[in-house]
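Why show two proteins at once? Because comparison is the fastest way to build intuition. When a single record is shown, students tend to memorize it. When two are placed side by side, the eye starts asking what differs. So, the first record is below.
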Amino acid sequence: MNTFEKIYEVVKTIPKGSVATYGWVADRAGNPRWSRVVGYALHVNPEPGIIPCHRVLTRKGETAPAFAFGGEDVQRKLLEAEGIEFRPDGTVDLERFAVWNR
């Protein structure tokens, strides 16, 4: 399995209504230093309907500034449709919605 495939397998484990960070995905995929690689992999996601890349956020709980499948607002809308709530500053409360706290 190549690096991107490992990343995609981890992202597939993030359940609806939960989020993860690039760093969390990188760590679970085998290397905590792969955060940027996670971003690259998600940007070329071969199966957007199967690999839920919209559930991956920055370490601060922010959406991706260049969400590959329609822009930043699309990522937020997809998350809100799954029950994820955003703070007034546009971030997600990782203590409440992160996969590792559920």
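Second record. Ask yourself what differs from the first in the token line.
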Amino acid sequence: MMNITDGMLLYHGSFTEVSSIALEKCKHGKDFGCGFYVTSSYEQARSFVPLSISKQINQGLLSSNCSIGYISVFRFHLTPDISIHLFKKADKEWLHFVAANRRKNLFPNLRTAYSNFDIVGGKIANDRTARTLQLYTSGGYGEPGSKEADEIAITTLLPNRLKDQFCFRSTRATQTLEFIRSDSYDINQQ
């Protein structure tokens, strides 16, 4: 069951240690919008390190022989002044919201409906699911939002195997994350 609780440890995998969160560095076009993404799964965060390093190398920001990344660990401190929405499962509404954030012309009403939440959480649509979401948003399964396209995409995603992610979308939300440590990870030592 999807949940975020006071004192919970959350993890962020990257090419660099993240001890201080800068929302202005966050990219648009992610599953739950622009924000700082963490997960309750250490292994999942670690699995993002090679991709993060690769992206930086491809952009010429890291040397091609770089193989060290980091899993930054945070403790979440629940406060009453933040608003949280958790998609409890990968269903039609979750699919439409992810699609809306990945392609601006799809389901704009959903981006508006969820725009005031400081934290949005739910199942992750990771690189293994990226192709399915690309086919869905481009109409490969039929018109996005149609019953047929929704059913094919959700079935193909195998949502019971997807881990969680939490997007901290406001400064108020990121202030609830206490940096604990960063663990270095050599992707060549897998």
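One difference worth noting in the second protein: The chain is about 30% helix and 20% strand.
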